[in-house]
Amino acid sequence: MRSIVVKIGSSSVTRATGPDPVVLTGALDAALNARSLGWGAVLVSSGAVASGSAYLARTTEIAGSARLAAAVGQPFLMDIYRSVSDVSGRHVCQLLMSESDLRSPQAMSSACAVLEECQAAGIIPIVNGNDVTDRRGSDNDGIAVGLAVASGADRLLLLTDVPGVHDASTGPAGHLTELPAAAIRGVPTGRRGRGRGGMRSKLRAAELAAYNGIETHIAGARQPGVITACVKGEPVGTRIPPARGRFPAEDRWISGIAAGHGSIVINRPAEDSIRAGASLFASGIKKVEGNFAGGDVIEVVTPSGRLVARGVSKVSASLMTLIRAMQTDEIAVVLTAILDRFYRFSGPGEAGPAPAGRAPLVRALELIDSQGYELTRRLALETINLFPAATVETMLGARDDEGRRHLRARYSRLSSDLSFIDRQRLVVF
Questions:
Q1: CA-closest candidate to residue 258, choices 321, 208, 318
Q2: Bridge pairing between strands 2-8 and 155-160
Q3: Tally of CB atoms within 10 A around 233
Q4: What does the alpha-carbon distance between residue 245 and residue 201 come to, in Å, rounded to a whole number?
């Protein structure tokens, strides 16, 4: 059976007074009918916060938090869905997903296992982000594309309060009928409505789906029969076609399931290098964006914003920012300076002479000398973890100029093979 993941945005499922039963009823009816067309459907339904806020404003004088509003609003959404399913004699179930689930392969595997059981039993799953536990609110666009990639869905339908994606060529009243994945980042976007993500978030989800072999449509939630039309392959909204075939199951966690936590901009030689199967080194990194840690999934993009790859970073954004665009001998100077700075925080010691160098090296050394203890400690621990044997050997010896020169020499040799994204954990599009 083929499958479709349908995400309905907050601005589409709620009115000022709470959930819109017309939109919710129509969505579930279409999901139930999709099965007769040979399709399984998953509904990712936003609107808990907006629904709860409307109810609290109408019935109490409490100025509750978004978390409280989500906890109050979630049952309202499910009551509407269950009333529709009871009439049809079919069943629905609820899955709440947190941002921590999008960071856990085990959690996503469990969620997909439940989706498979639902499809086998004819149950329609209603998925929503867990706004009670997520610190910044749930990203239902990210949840929708993550589930689509993980479950091997054939189509992703992102329903919103506009009929599709528009740009300068279409004007505000029209929309693009088709948008290639490579052109997505050139589309101007703005924030509107009550949802968290807006069009920018939907385009990012569509881009990720396209690079994982999934056809995506961005369309108006109030267009009559929009879900059924999409299932039948009829034109709806803006279509983003697949940009390539599907990845093997073992690559999908990095390619499209895991939430991205930042990005790095690389130069053309670096792009050519990783496409040829080589590793990504510091000299090819032009810019670092985000606040990721070592072990987080990040995006690799060109200066124009085109998505090249996704991979697991070996280092944090803080360390990568310091040593990007550097040669191995310069990296060695920076890493040694980090440890010097940590020693001066931790006890007696004097800084070694700062060698002259190119402007990026000088700026990095100035940043190291101006940062506080906590960041210095984290960078020092990260440096030690990168090259434990060489670092410990020198730490057990002298910390004088001779020791520093020895450590720099060791770091310079070791940095020549320092790939910032493990080639085995890099998926190139």
A1: 208
A2: parallel
A3: 9
A4: 23
Angle at 255 between CA 252 and CA 259, to 5 degrees: 100
Q: CA torsion 412→414→415→420, rounded to 10°? A: -170
Residues in the chain: 429
Question: What is the rounded CA–CA span in Å between residue 125 and residue 114?
Answer: 9
Q: What is the pTM of this model?
A: 0.88
- Rounded Cα–Cα distance for residues 348 and 420 (Å): 33
293 CB neighbour count, 10 Å cutoff: 15
Domains and CATH numbers, the chain: 2-253 (3.40.1160.10), 260-429 (2.30.130.10)
Query: pLDDT digit of tens for each residue in the chain (429 aa)?
Result: 899 999 998 878 877 777 788 888 899 999 999 988 999 999 999 888 888 888 888 888 877 788 998 999 899 889 888 988 888 788 999 999 988 888 888 999 999 999 999 999 999 999 999 988 887 767 899 999 999 999 999 999 999 989 999 877 776 678 999 999 999 998 887 654 444 568 999 999 999 999 999 999 999 999 999 999 999 999 999 999 999 999 998 999 999 999 899 999 999 999 999 999 998 999 999 999 999 999 999 999 999 989 999 999 999 999 999 999 999 999 999 999 999 888 887 654 555 555 566 788 988 999 998 989 999 999 999 999 999 988 877 666 555 677 778 888 889 998 888 889 988 899 999
Q: In whole angstroms, what is the distance from residue 162 CA to residue 96 CA? A: 26
Give the number of other CB atoms < 10 A from CB of residue 413: 14
Q: Could you tell me which of 160, 163, 194, 196 has the C-alpha nearest to residue 23?
A: 160
Question: Phi and psi for 402 in degrees, rounded to 5?
Answer: -65, -40
Three-state SS at 142: helix
Closest among 308, 300, 289, 303 to 420, alpha carbons compared? 300
Q: How far is CA 200 from the centre of its chain?
A: 13
Using CA atoms, how far apart are residues 248 and 423, in angstroms rounded to an integer? Answer: 16
Q: Do residues 298 and 263 lie in contact, with contact meaning Cβ atoms separated by under 8 Å?
A: yes
The single-letter code of the amino acid at 179 is L
Give the bridge partners for 127, in sequence order. Answer: 44, 95
131's torsion region: left (phi>0), alpha (psi -120 to 50) or beta? Answer: alpha
Tokens 């690079």 correspond to: 211
Count of other CB atoms within 10 angstroms of residue 59: 9
